[in-house]
Amino acid sequence: MKKFITILTVFLLSIFQLNGCASVKSQLDFHTKEDKGIFGGGLSGVVIGGIASGNVFGALLGGMVGTALGAFIGQYLDKKVASREDALLKYALRDDGKKLFVENSTTVPATAATGSAVNVGVQYTVLAPAYIKQIKITETRMLFNEKEGWMKLAERQVARTQGTYSSVFSFTLPKRISKGDAVIVTIISNDKQTEKTLSFLKII
What is the pTM of this model? Predict the structure, then answer.
């Protein structure tokens, strides 16, 4: 039951992270994506801290940890693995809109020590009518740990031509991150559609 609540919380917070920051933008001026990540990490940390501890002190501690780990440094590795023609053999394009299909996500290695490198990969397909040359895609990756709460790994916008892509974000686990089971949520979205997928990481 505890693990189920954890995973459910991750999905609820993923919705907040993508939509909540946009809703408060009119009240708070975020100059960079890192600012948004730190704010989102702090506020989400407060929520998780309060849930986990049941008291105000736990909520404040969760907020501090979430803020401290609100931004990660890493690099992207991209590869186009299938053309539009190949993708159409797998997915039917039945209307005149853009379509997004998230196929799988991976965490390699699945067990990693603090201070070591981790690769978070996702494969997805973007399709649209042939006259649309590029589609703007937002990739967001987040890590949830029961002790520390919500941490944004990375977010970026890329312009994709139609077809299937492998996108990997490589980062180093902080040495001070809590050990234990973690869930990584990957969200891929265009201007009309958002898809989420989970992968798991054990931190030792």
Answer: 0.69
